[in-house]
Design a protein that fits this description.
4 helices; five-stranded parallel sheet; alpha/beta; Oxidized Rhodanese, domain 1
Length: about 100
């Protein structure tokens, strides 16, 4: 099992980005949501389409999952961990917290 916490905060994600931690951001919001406020560089896969797109997720990198406020991304984080993805974490507060930081 991974030592990665189930959830991280915006400060931790900023540190990942600043220090070059090998990670991707998985945005599980719907296309209309990402169109109005995208997360630059994120892999965009709506929550309902994650199961059929597992091949797009790197198992060797940390995956930070986000949505609008953190509820859907928390569900996806738990589901991905059940599928064997150990390096997955939820962004607490989602894009709302990121935008407010």
């Amino acid at each position: 099992m991974s030592d990665l916490p189930f959830e991280i905060d915006v400060t931790t994600l900023k540190k990942y980005r600043e220090t070059g931690v090998d990670h991707i951001v998985l945005d599980v919001r719907e296309p209309a949501e990402t169109a109005s406020h995208a997360f630059e560089g994120a892999v965009e896969i709506p929550m309902g389409e994650v199961p059929q797109n597992l091949d797009k997720l790197p198992e060797e990198k940390t995956i930070v999952v986000l949505c609008h406020i953190g509820g859907r991304s928390m569900q996806v984080t738990g589901w991905l961990r059940q599928q064997g993805f150990e390096n997955v974490t939820n962004l607490r507060g989602g894009i709302e917290a990121w935008a407010a930081s």
